[in-house]
From TrEMBL:
GO terms for biological process: response to bacterium. The lineage of its organism: Eukaryota, Viridiplantae, Streptophyta, Embryophyta, Tracheophyta. The keyword Chloroplast does not apply. GO terms for cellular component: endoplasmic reticulum membrane. This is Reticulon-like protein. Residues 77-263 form the Reticulon domain. Its main location: endoplasmic reticulum. It comes from Nicotiana tabacum. Residues 29-49 are annotated as: Disordered. It is a multi-pass membrane protein.
Amino acid sequence: MAEHAEHSEYNEEESLIEKIEDKIHFDRFSSSSSDSDTEKKPASAPEAASPSSVKAAIWRLFGREKPVHQVFGGGKPADVFLWRNKKISASVLGGATAIWVLFELLEYHLLGLVCHLLIFTLAILFLWSNATTFINKKRPHIPEVHLPEEPILEIASALRIEINHTLRVLREIASGRDLTKFLSVIAGLWVLSVLGNCCNFLTLFYISFVLLHTVPVLYEKYEDKVDPLVEKAVKEIKKQYAVFDAKVLSKIPKGPLRDKKKA
């Protein structure tokens, strides 16, 4: 009995040792397999750049992040400027061209045109209304035309906000805090004055209208080619401005307003 008990204890110890060895062997095998997997995958391999990061790295004109259609508001005016509906865009541009030809080339006056249109319209309606009594037909239905209040108030409110913003910007420029903005506004106003001496307001408005119907759609079509060229031009302008700032603007004495702020 004692020998049998010793033999069973020996078997139990031997099985326990075997289990421990199997466990150690399994742990070594799993660690070695994980090491081999990490060795197969290079640690310094660069990850593929996502399309969003590549797209964000592209320089866009005026630093825009939205498509051209959303920059113009994304509504019907944007559809007209970008020729989403060619019939409507062509009709709008054709109407503007007809108005410019009528007033500029034919030298027709706005007040005379309005009066002549009213005379022609009233004469036709008056004759048509009286002619129906002789031919036993119904009188023409003349609709009541009235201006809605809400759109007029919205336009007036938007115009008021823009005028106040412009006055605020002009006041800030006149205070002498930003020399760069002052010079850019002066240059823009000088260019407008030169254009105003070359052509009248109607021609200038028509040129701007035509540019709005041509430049955005061409830019949207060739933006991938235009943006790199504009980026190079902007960098060159910044370099020249830095040279001009170092040689000229930095030598201009500072006004008392800046000295008070620093004090």
